[in-house]
């Protein structure tokens, strides 16, 4: 291949020099590139409603965690446009591979809030049927879901079933080997998969500049032959348009894409994190001013598509959802704590036997029960199999 041909090939893979934006922070429409499609008005109105309800869901889950009714909750406040815009780009037959921070995406996909929070309550399963919802379990280890997403996308392609796979990844996940392997496999196979990197500037407490020296995370697709783009992740109109284009590109058999969405995590990493140790309030305030929900509302009002009544209706729906969530998470988990050890190994290790005995003794002491600590069938760990 000549240098000129090589350069032309690389140019087709490169993202825009600046993140794609269709709406300014004050809600003013920006010029749209030739050939670009703005999502339909009805879709944008639905997106606004979902964002209002989703934010209230996120805030309520955060409060419930502080009350001890959830074991942990990673808030996605500030990332509404990324998650909801991505979900709205999918069809029913498409698959979603989320991370642990993408509860709002699952909520927008239609999953029962009580089911999608099951894992975060401390259960051993994800709470929902991944096959029925075409949604993989929320992944806690960074980027390990990315190769799985490519494998499922390739399986769909080989079986001729159609469908596209969307894999959500954080900026920290792009530093993992699994992410690079997934990109490479996707590029080689031409799998119908879209990687959406939610660059919220921090991998827990590690800022982006200490994670990567690349000018943009979107450039990581170039080395694997994967076309890439970057978008203002707080601009739902642009995010939905860019992700939709990549999804339809994959659906048409034209292979994978990588999209970097620039956004920000307003809340701490989880309820166990003190974000004040590694970022200042001035930085957070700047990003609060770029609120994606407010930006979309201003845009829709500017275009005379949104009324006060519709805003009030969305807020009322959000409150009803929050009330239902509070009621549904009112009671304790029904499971036996000793199930924690039941499906780890077919033959438990000595360490697990010791740990189970310790927990059983603790439970017995706290319950005033000198039996098996809730293991009513009387079968010890040694008698169980995985």
UniProtKB/TrEMBL annotation:
Keywords attached to this entry: Oxidoreductase, Pyruvate, Thiamine pyrophosphate
Task: Tell me which domain of life the UniProt entry assigns to the organism this sequence originates from.
Answer: Bacteria
Q: From start to end residue, where is composition biased (Gly residues)?
A: 373-386
What's the Enzyme Commission number for this chain? 1.2.4.4
Q: Name one Pfam family in it.
A: E1_dh
Q: Which reaction does it catalyse?
A: N(6)-[(R)-lipoyl]-L-lysyl-[protein] + 3-methyl-2-oxobutanoate + H(+) = N(6)-[(R)-S(8)-2-methylpropanoyldihydrolipoyl]-L-lysyl-[protein] + CO2
What residues does the Dehydrogenase E1 component domain cover? 49-321
One example of a Gene Ontology biological process annotation: branched-chain amino acid catabolic process
Q: Which family does it belong to?
A: Belongs to the BCKDHA family.
What is the recorded name of this protein? 2-oxoisovalerate dehydrogenase subunit alpha
